[in-house]
Structures are given as structure tokens and as C-alpha cells.
């Protein structure tokens, strides 16, 4: 897969269908973008054509198979820089994000060194500006060195531009630390994102029982989810549960939301498309954390997305060099790449199978993560906002191959799979990316 990047002072999108996340689809819009901002959105009819300025303009003519969406927002990914640039860099990762329709990606802080101070946060933003692809937002460390012992300088990290706090990859095990973080989330207005796992219960579960492979039982996740919900109830702080994988966790979050607890949650495409039985192939691309679950859990994840218990779809894009994956199961790093297949998997499994509408899928990828993170001027297509637009064709099918993966790493279990729905163009301010 190749991506062509062009800069234009003025861009007009003509035709197609524009999606209002969670609400409706409007036919035949004209969207006029000038100097990277949306100047006007008009409904195109036979009696009306937009006034087209003559100089230095790009007109993108779309047909009825083309859908115009707000740029996707991934609130959970790993770009591996600094520390593991053999697997991914900010430049390669943000280009892979473009290929998947993402205009904003939020990188987790489990880098080497971890993102626990303003200097490193500024480094990430500088590298993102140099790459000039998808915008990177930083999720800062909740504790110093992600060690779970001492809270970072929350105010300094917020001033440096972080949009949330997490020790992702490492659960915040100390309940007092978690309670203190949730207390601080009330003043910072930033969520605390936890990788929920009781480590003492790890290396058990169905994978160990049936396949002899290391795994993490559902209780290891749901017990910490329950603790975090109780702490959020006590503090009134905002807890965000990362990569929900099982029915027990979904049920707990559903209960908590009905109670009015300040909780939001995400899941990943793998948890509504794959099961633990896929691990029987002994392909380490299926090794993830939390691990793949049962068919019952997959159904619960879909229902949780459908009824709003789960707010957002994130990729947990986790690239690894082949030297970290092409080894025995127990020695392999957990994780799979996810930017480039996320939309197609969501469309196939959730929309085509009638769990909910295309508009709701787009909300899970756009406005919902924007609201969770408090992002202004993101997740919508509105007059006066910076342009962040994704265009896709629902009639196009494609097959992921190692050769067409844009990410630096190739650790995807979907290689060779036929996928429906193709990202074709992405606009970020004055940049037009064409995916070929």
C-alpha cells in the first residue's frame, strides 16, 4: 500500500455522503476547505453548485459509494519511540494510522524511557510535527517510570500537553495510588486509564488449560475493573478502562454506568473478531494482553458496544519487530498492529451483522473518544474547525498482505483475510493523503 501526500491551499469535497457521528447520513455535500479550515458545508442539488475559486484548488469528486467521516481518533496505541524504533517510529506509525483513516492517535507511555516527564512529552510532539502525518497526542505516565510507587508530576505533564494518565502495560496495582490519581483527575479534568490485571492471577485460564499456553483469566481483569469502579465511585474521579475483553467486565461497567459512576471504556477489534481458539494455530500474532477470550465474551463485547456500555473502539496498535514475535509463545511479546484493519473489521462484524448502524460505528471511532479525552475541535466536521476528514468506500474489498502493510512491523493475524470497506483518502488541514 502506498500513500501520496499533497498540500493544497484550497480543497473542495463534492458529492458522496457525509456521516454525522451517531446521528445521520447526508447525501451530496459540498465541503469547502481553505488554509486547513472548513469554511463551509453545503447541500449540493441540481440547482446549486458551490462557488469555486479559480486559483490553486483541488476538487475531489466523490460518488455515492464514498462516505465522508470525521477523521478517526485512536485513544490507545503504541508508537515505540523512544526505545524500540526497530519495531515502529513516530513517522512510520503515523503513516500507518493514515492508512487506517486515523487523523489523531494517542500514544501510550510505555516507551524506553517511559513518558513520565515534560521533556520526553515535548520530544514526542516535536517528532510528530516533523513527521507531519496523523497528529500524535501523548498519554503521560501515571507513576514514575511506570513502577506504580510514586505519582508523576501531574500538573507539569498536563502543562506539557498530555491528554490522560496511564501506566499502560503495567496495571496500577496499589489501591491508594489509584485512589489518589482519581482524586487528581477531578482537578486536571483528565482521565486515568488503567490496564486492569491482577498480576497474582495471571498465567492461568483457558489457554493454559486447553492449549498449554500462558494466558490471563477473565477474573484477573474483572477484579481490578471492580476495584477501579469502587474507587471512582468514592472519589468521583474519571476512570477509563482500557481494552475491555470479557463479559464480566462489560457487566460491571454497565452496572456502574447505571449507578452514575464516572467511568468510560474502550475495546479493540480483536475482542469482537477473534477468540482464544485462534491461538491453537500457535501463531504468536494472536498473543495479546489481555488475551483473546471465548465466543461468549466476544458476543458480550458486541452487545456492550451496541448499548453504549463500551464507549470507544481503540486499536491498541502494538507493533513488534519479527525478532520479538517469531519465537516460542511464552517468549513472544504480546500485541498486534491495528491501525490499518480497524475500520474494516468494525464494519464487517458490527454493521454488516446488524449490531448497530454505520453512524454509531463512526461515533465509536470519532466523537466518543474526543469527548472522553476532552478534545475540542475534534471528532466532527463543522464550519470553522480544522479539517480532519476520512473518506472510505464501503463497496471495496481488499486483502491484507505483508507487502501492503504500511507499519514498520507486520505482526497482524489478519494477513490473508478478505476485508470489506476501504479507506481511500484522508485530509488533515491542508494535506490530502491518497491511499493507493
Task: Kindly describe this structure.
This protein has two domains: 3-69 and 384-435, Urease, subunit C, domain 1, CATH 2.30.40; 72-373, Alpha-Beta Barrel (TIM Barrel). It has helices at residues 90-99, 118-131, 154-160, 175-188, 206-211, 218-235, 247-259, 295-306, 322-325, 342-351, 358-365, 367-373; strands at residues 3-7, 10-20, 24-27, 29-34, 37-43, 57-70, 72-77, 102-107, 135-141, 164-166, 192-194, 239-241, 263-267, 312-313, 388-399, 418-428, 431-435. The radius of gyration is 21 Å and the shape is globular. It starts with a strand and ends with a strand. Helix 2 packs parallel to helix 3 (154-160) and helix 7 (247-259) runs parallel beside helix 8 (295-306). With 436 residues, it is of the alpha/beta class. It is 28% helix and 25% strand. It is built from twelve helices and 17 strands.
Give descriptors for this structure:
17 strands; TIM Barrel; Urease, subunit C, domain 1; 9-stranded mixed sheet; globular; alpha/beta; 436 residues; 8-stranded parallel sheet; single chain
Give the structure's gist in a few sentences.
With 436 residues, the chain is an alpha/beta fold. It has helices at residues 90-99, 118-131, 154-160, 175-188, 206-211, 218-235, 247-259, 295-306, 322-325, 342-351, 358-365, 367-373, and strands at 3-7, 10-20, 24-27, 29-34, 37-43, 57-70, 72-77, 102-107, 135-141, 164-166, 192-194, 239-241, 263-267, 312-313, 388-399, 418-428, 431-435. The chain is globular.
Amino acid at each position: 500500500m502506498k500513500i501520496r501526500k499533497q498540500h493544497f491551499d484550497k480543497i473542495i469535497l463534492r458529492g458522496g455522503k457525509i456521516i454525522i457521528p451517531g446521528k445521520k447520513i447526508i447525501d451530496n455535500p459540498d465541503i469547502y476547505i481553505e488554509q486547513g479550515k472548513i469554511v463551509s458545508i453545503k447541500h449540493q442539488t441540481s440547482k446549486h453548485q458551490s462557488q469555486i475559486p479559480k486559483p490553486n484548488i483541488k476538487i475531489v469528486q466523490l460518488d455515492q459509494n464514498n462516505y465522508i467521516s470525521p477523521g478517526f481518533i485512536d485513544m490507545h496505541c503504541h508508537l515505540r519511540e523512544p526505545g524500540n524504533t526497530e519495531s515502529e517510529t513516530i513517522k512510520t506509525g503515523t503513516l500507518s494510522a493514515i492508512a487506517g483513516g486515523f487523523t489523531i492517535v494517542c500514544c501510550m507511555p510505555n516507551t524506553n524511557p517511559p513518558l513520565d516527564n515534560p521533556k520526553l512529552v515535548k520530544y514526542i510532539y516535536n517528532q510528530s510535527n516533523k513527521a507531519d502525518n496523523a497528529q500524535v497526542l501523548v498519554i503521560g505516565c501515571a507513576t514514575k517510570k511506570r513502577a506504580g510507587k510514586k505519582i508523576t508530576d501531574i500538573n507539569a505533564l498536563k502543562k506539557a500537553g498530555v491528554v490522560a494518565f496511564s501506566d499502560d502495560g503495567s496495571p496500577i496495582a496499589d489501591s491508594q495510588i489509584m485512589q489518589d490519581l482519581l482524586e487528581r483527575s477531578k482537578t486536571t479534568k483528565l482521565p486515568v486509564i488503567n490496564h486492569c490485571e491482577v498480576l497474582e492471577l495471571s498465567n492461568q485460564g483457558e489457554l493454559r488449560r486447553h492449549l498449554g499456553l500462558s494466558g490471563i483469566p477473565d477474573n484477573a481483569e474483572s477484579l481490578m475493573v471492580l476495584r477501579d469502579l469502587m474507587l471512582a465511585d468514592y472519589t468521583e474521579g474519571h476512570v477509563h478502562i482500557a481494552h475491555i475483553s470479557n463479559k464480566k467486565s462489560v457487566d460491571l461497567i454497565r452496572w456502574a454506568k447505571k449507578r452514575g459512576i464516572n467511568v468510560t471504556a474502550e475495546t479493540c477489534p480483536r475482542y469482537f473478531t477473534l477468540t482464544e481458539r485462534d491461538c491453537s494455530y500457535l501463531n504468536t500474532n494472536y498473543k495479546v494482553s489481555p488475551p483473546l477470550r471465548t465466543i461468549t465474551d466476544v458476543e458480550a463485547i458486541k452487545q456492550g458496544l451496541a448499548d453504549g456500555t463500551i464507549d470507544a473502539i481503540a486499536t491498541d496498535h502494538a507493533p513488534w519487530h519479527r525478532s520479538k514475535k517469531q519465537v516460542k509463545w511464552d517468549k513472544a511479546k504480546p500485541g498486534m498492529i491495528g491501525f490499518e484493519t480497524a475500520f474494516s473489521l468494525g464494519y464487517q462484524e458490527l454493521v454488516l451483522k446488524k449490531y448497530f448502524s454505520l453512524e454509531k460505528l463512526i461515533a465509536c471511532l470519532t466523537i466518543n473518544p474526543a469527548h472522553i479525552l476532552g478534545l475540542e475541535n475534534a471528532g466532527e466536521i463543522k464550519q470553522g474547525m480544522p479539517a480532519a476528514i476520512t473518506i472510505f468506500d464501503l463497496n471495496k474489498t481488499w486483502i491484507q498482505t505483508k507487502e501492503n502493510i504500511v507499519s514498520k512491523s507486520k505482526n497482524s493475524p489478519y494477513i490473508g483475510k478478505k476485508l470489506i470497506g476501504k479507506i481511500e483518502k484522508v485530509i488533515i488541514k491542508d494535506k490530502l493523503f491518497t491511499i493507493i
